[in-house]
Amino acid sequence: MQDIGRSKRAARSFSLDDVAIMPTRRTRGIETVDIDWRIDAITFGFPMLAAPMDSVMSPATAIAFGQLGGLGVLNLEGLWTRYADPEALFEELGAASDQVTTSRLQEIYAEPIKAELITERLRQIRDAGVPVAGALSPQTAQKFAGVVENAGLDFFVIRGTAVSAQHVSNATEPLDLARFIYELDVPVIVGGCATYQTALHLMRTGAAGVLVGFGGAATSTNAQVIGIEVPMATAISDVAEARRDYLDESGGRYVHVIADGAMGHSGDIVKALACGADAAMLGVPLARATEAPGQGWHWGQEAWHESLPRGRRVRVDQVGTLREVMLGPSHSPDGTMNLVGALRRAMASTGYTEVKAFQRIDLIIH
Amino acid sequence: MQDIGRSKRAARSFSLDDVAIMPTRRTRGIETVDIDWRIDAITFGFPMLAAPMDSVMSPATAIAFGQLGGLGVLNLEGLWTRYADPEALFEELGAASDQVTTSRLQEIYAEPIKAELITERLRQIRDAGVPVAGALSPQTAQKFAGVVENAGLDFFVIRGTAVSAQHVSNATEPLDLARFIYELDVPVIVGGCATYQTALHLMRTGAAGVLVGFGGAATSTNAQVIGIEVPMATAISDVAEARRDYLDESGGRYVHVIADGAMGHSGDIVKALACGADAAMLGVPLARATEAPGQGWHWGQEAWHESLPRGRRVRVDQVGTLREVMLGPSHSPDGTMNLVGALRRAMASTGYTEVKAFQRIDLIIH
Amino acid sequence: MQDIGRSKRAARSFSLDDVAIMPTRRTRGIETVDIDWRIDAITFGFPMLAAPMDSVMSPATAIAFGQLGGLGVLNLEGLWTRYADPEALFEELGAASDQVTTSRLQEIYAEPIKAELITERLRQIRDAGVPVAGALSPQTAQKFAGVVENAGLDFFVIRGTAVSAQHVSNATEPLDLARFIYELDVPVIVGGCATYQTALHLMRTGAAGVLVGFGGAATSTNAQVIGIEVPMATAISDVAEARRDYLDESGGRYVHVIADGAMGHSGDIVKALACGADAAMLGVPLARATEAPGQGWHWGQEAWHESLPRGRRVRVDQVGTLREVMLGPSHSPDGTMNLVGALRRAMASTGYTEVKAFQRIDLIIH
Amino acid sequence: MQDIGRSKRAARSFSLDDVAIMPTRRTRGIETVDIDWRIDAITFGFPMLAAPMDSVMSPATAIAFGQLGGLGVLNLEGLWTRYADPEALFEELGAASDQVTTSRLQEIYAEPIKAELITERLRQIRDAGVPVAGALSPQTAQKFAGVVENAGLDFFVIRGTAVSAQHVSNATEPLDLARFIYELDVPVIVGGCATYQTALHLMRTGAAGVLVGFGGAATSTNAQVIGIEVPMATAISDVAEARRDYLDESGGRYVHVIADGAMGHSGDIVKALACGADAAMLGVPLARATEAPGQGWHWGQEAWHESLPRGRRVRVDQVGTLREVMLGPSHSPDGTMNLVGALRRAMASTGYTEVKAFQRIDLIIH
Fold first, then answer.
1. Low-confidence ranges of chain C (pLDDT < 70)
2. Which of B320, C227, D147, D244 might form a disulfide with A267, Cβ 3.0–4.6 angstroms?
3. Domain count within chain D
4. Could you give the ipTM of this predicted complex?
5. Which of D23, D329, D331 sits opposite B228 (nearest CB)?
6. Is the pLDDT of residue B95 over 90?
C-alpha cells in the first residue's frame, strides 16, 4: 500500500502487460504437456472459452469453436436473438468503416430480445453435437431463464460489467443469485468480478465458475467514462486466492477462475493462467478469425448502452481461419495465431505439464 | 518519501490518471444513488461547478448551466466585463485556427475591467432565477468586491493559480483574506491551493469552499514555465485531510473541497470525488458543449499574462449540447457526454448511494 | 518482491534500458584500458562474439570478424548448411521489402540441413586462419556433433531459446548435456539461459561459457507469443552470481557469462559488462554492417518455426563497414559504430582498466 | 537501493522531468524576490551562465549576455579560435538542413586552435566592459592556460564530459588540477561532474565552482554510445551535499554548484535550483535566441569527436531576441521566453525571496 496523499492509501495493481513469466531450470518436450480443461462433467481440449460477443460468436462460430475443442458461448442478448435475420445488420456493421456511430449501434440494439429466437439459436448449436452455452446479463437472466433452461444447455453464463452477489435496487426486484443458481438445473458461470470479496461471494452462490474482469478490455472505455479499472494480473491473483479460501470453506468445491478479456495475444493467455486462472474467455483474438461475424470489427455489450455507452467498436486484423487462430500452424509471429500451440509451448519451455502446476510459476514485473 | 539524492527527499505524487476506483462486493440500482450537492444554503442537482473561464462560461451558459442544476461561475475579469460587446472577439477567438497567437490574447485582455459590466452581467444571471456566482483573482478581489457584492450573488469565488492565506508583498497592500471574507456578506469559495497547509489556512479564513488545483490542467503550462506541478489525486487527498482536521479544530465547520481542473473526462470527476473532493469545477468538459463561448477552443486566465503567459489556447471537440454533456443521453463512449449519468453509474456499480461515503472507496494505482 | 495480488508475488526485473553506469571519481587515458578477452586457450582482441544468425554471419563475415579480433559464430542450421548456393535466397531476403512473409521464411528453412555443407563451411573458416565456431540448437546438436567435431572447430555453441540441463521429453531422447560436453573434445558455449538456477546447472555440465538471454531481442516476439520475457540487466546479474557460486563450488572453474542479444547500441554492450557479463554476443549491431549477409534486414531462428514462429524479420540501417562498426572511426553519434572504441571510452571515462573490475561499477536505475 | 539481480544493486536516480516543486502555504509579490548571484568578486543579475558552445556563444553574444546581467562563457576550442573568419562556416552549419553530417563536423573542427585567436576573442569581450569567461577542455587547458591568463579573464572554465581530480594516463602528462588552479590567478569553474565523490575532490582542488552534468543533454548521446547517464536532479542533489560537507571540511569555503545542461525550459532551471544548484549553465534555451550563432541549430563539443562522436546537431526553434529569452516579455507559454521572470515568478508563487532558501523547497516525484 502506498500513500496517495494524507487521507488515502492505495495498492499498486498490475495488468498482464506489466508482468511476464520466467524460464525455470527445466524444459520439456511439447508432447508431454496436457492442457485439457475439465469443468463440471465436460472435458475440453484447451482451457479457452469464446466470449459471448456479437463480433465473435454466432451460432455457426459457436459450433465451429466447439468442434475445435473449446466452449463457445453465444450472446443471448445480441443480434441473433433480437432479429430473425440479422445478416444484413452484420453486413452493415462489418463492411462499414468508421462511419458506424455509437448512435447507430444504440438504434440497432434497441430491438427487443425474442424468446423464440433464444430457443432456436441454442437448438441449432445443440444439434451440432457440441457443448452449448449461452450468456445473459444479470438484468435479463431471470426473465429468460426458463426459456434458456428449456432450450437445453450445458453452461448458463451470467455476464455483466460488474456482477455482485449483493445487488440492491429500489426499482426492480434484484436477481437473487444464490436462489437462481440453486433452482437452475444447469451449471452457472458468473461474472465479471474483480476482487477477492466479490469473487468469494459469487462462489458462495454455487457458481461453477467466475469470470474475472470488468467490461472487457480492447473495446471498453470504462476507465475514461466511470473511472473504474481492473488491472487483470492483480484481479486474477486476488480471485485465485478466493478460490483457494472457498475451497477450504466449502470442504472441497473447486470453482473455476476464468479470466475474461484483456488478452489480445497468446502471451496474455499464458500470463493469465500463470497468475492463477483456470481458463481464459477470449474476445479480440477470435474476432480476428476470418469466420468471425464481426468481419474485421469488434464490439462489446457496453458499446450500445442507451444513455451511457462505455465501449468502442474497434477494427481488428483478420489473420487466418478460426482453426488457424486456435490450433495453427501460425504464419504470424505476433501471438495472434495458434493460441493453443503457444500455451503448450510456453508450458514446455518452462517445464510444466499441467495448468494447475503452471499457476505457480514465477512472474517478473518489468 | 524517496531519496532524490544525498541532500533531498521527495514524496511520490499521483495524478488522477495514475489511479482508478475498484469495484466492491456490492452493486446498486442507479435509481438509489443521490448526488445532490448541498453547500451553504443551496442544494444543487449534482456536485459540479462550471469554471470561470471565457471559453466555458458566458452569462448565457451560466444561466443554462444553472437551469440544468449546477453552479455556473462567471469570470469577472474576462471579455464580458472588459467589453460591452465581446461577441466579435469571441468570433475571432473561436473561428480562427492556430493563428491566434499568445500576443493577440495579451492584446485583447489588456483592455481594463469595467465595474458597470460586472454589475450588468451578474444581474443578467440573477434575473434568470438561477444561483449567481462570479470569480475574481486575489489581485482584483478587493477593488471590485463592493461592486460584486452590490450586484448580488450567491457565491463569491476568489480564484488564482496559487492563492495563500499569507501573501507578502512590498508593492501592494496584499489581500487580507480572513478580514475580506469576514466583512463580505456572501459565502466565498477560494483557491487554488494544493497542499494540506495552504488548505488549512484558507479554511481558517472562513471560506465556504476551497478550490484544489494549480492553474488548471488542459491549458496550463506551469510545469514547463515555472516548474510547479500538482498531481491532482494527491492534492485532493491532502486537502481532504485538512478538511477533516479543520472540522475538528473548528468544532464542526465543514469546508467543501472542490477539485478544480485536470478532469477532462467523466471518469476523472469520479476519481476526484473518490479521492475526497465534495465537488468538481469543470473546464474542458464544458468547453466541448456546442453552446460554449469558446466555439471549439479552450483557454484559461494564464494564457494572456502580459510578461509570462503560462497557458495555451487548445482545440477541443464539440461533442453535443450542454444538456447532453451534463445529463445525456451520451452517444460517445469516451467520457465526454452525460457526466452526471457517469457519476451515478460509477457509484451504482460500486454500491454507493451518496458522495460522502463514496469518498472512502478503495483506489488502485496502476 | 512485490505483491501482484493476494496469491502471487513477483520481483521487479530490469532491462539494459532501465539502467546506466555512473561516472566515478577517477578517469583514465583510453590507452590504459585493456579489453582483451581470454576464454579457454584463445585470447581475443575484444569481448564480443558475432551471433550465429543468417543475417549476421556467413563464412565470409565470420572470417572477417575473426580477422578484426573477435569470435564469429556460424549458424550451422541456417541457409549455408541447407543450401549449396544460398546466394539467390539471400538476394531475395535482403532485397525485398516487407513482402517476405513469415510463410516464405518457413518455406525456405524447410530444406534439410546437410552434413557435408557443415563440413565445408567450417573448413572455409578454418582455412582463413581465424578461430572457428559453429552453433547448433539442442535439438540437432547430437545428430551433427560428430560432423562438427570432425570438421574441427575451436568453440562449439549450443544455442536455443531456452536451454536447460534438465530437458524432459517422451518423444525424443533428450540431449544429455553433461555427457555430451564431456565426450566432446571442444569447449562448449551453451544457452540461452536467464536465471541463476538454470545457469548453475549449465555450468555444472562443463560448459566453458553460458549465453544469457531468451530468444534474442530485436527480432524476438516471445513476450507476445508465449508470455516469457527476460529483462537482460537482471538476467546477467543473476547469472553472474551463479558464476561466482560455481567458481567456489568447483574449486576454481571460471565459466564465462556471455550476454546474448538485447544490445542494439554500444552503450548496451557497456551496460551488459557492467552488469557482470564477460562478453557480449551481437546480432543487430553487426547486421548493420554493409557486408552483413542480411543486406539491411535482420532475422533470427525463431522467425521460421514451422507452427509457432516467434520472431520478426526487421529492417536495420546499414551504417558502415564491419571494420568501422567494430573499430571505427565512427561518423554516427548513435552507438552504431566503433563498438570497441565505445567500450574502451566508457571504461576510461569511469577509471577502469580491465573488464573484470569494470563488472563492479555502480549502476543507476532511471 | 534496489536489486537489479542477485549480484547487483542500484539506486533509483531522477531527472528534472521526474520532479516538480510544490506550492507552499505562503506566496509573495514578485518584487520581493532577489535572484542576484554573487560568485567570487562579481555579482550577476541572475544565476544563469551561457554555455561555451559554438551554437550559443560568439564574442558578440557573450557581450550581449553580459550586458543583460549574466555570465557568458566563450568556447575557446570552437570555430572562433580555430578560424579567423568563421562566419562562412556558421552560415553553412546554420543554413543547411539535416545534410550537415557528423563527418562534416569532424572535418571542420579538425582545424587547429590558434593561440592568437584566443587572445583576440577574449579581448573583444573584455573591451565591451562585461565579465569575461572562456572555456577549455582538460586536454587543452594546460597548453593554452598562459595565453588565456594573459588575455585576461574573470573566470576560467575547464569543461569536459567527465572531469575528475584523479586522471590517470600513460600517454600524456595528466592535468594536475589542484596545482593548475593554485598557480592560476583566475577563479576556476570546473566540471562536468556527477557524483558526490568527484565533486568533493574537485572542490578540494580550489575551484570556485563545479559544473554538474555529463555531456549536456539536448545534443548528447552518451547514454546510447557509452552507457553513461546522469539524471540531473539526483546529480545536483548529490553534489549539493558535497558542497555542504566541503564547506565544513574547509572551514567555510563555499563552492558554487552549477547545473550544466538538461534544462530546456525555464521550469527546468527552477527545478535545478530547487534541487540545490546555485546557478544554471544554459545551452539550448539560448540557442533559441535569434542572435544565437547556431541560427536555429544547436550542437556540442561531443558532436565532432574524431573517432567516437557522442552528440547530435539538433534543430531548435528561434523564439525571440536574447533579451526576450532572458528578460521577457514572453509571448510563448512554453518556458522558452523570460527565463529570469519565470524564476522570479516560481519563487514568488512559493513564497521565497532568495535562491539560498529556495534550495530547500519541497519537491514531488511524479
1. 98-99, 171, 215-217
2. C227
3. 1
4. 0.95
5. D23
6. no
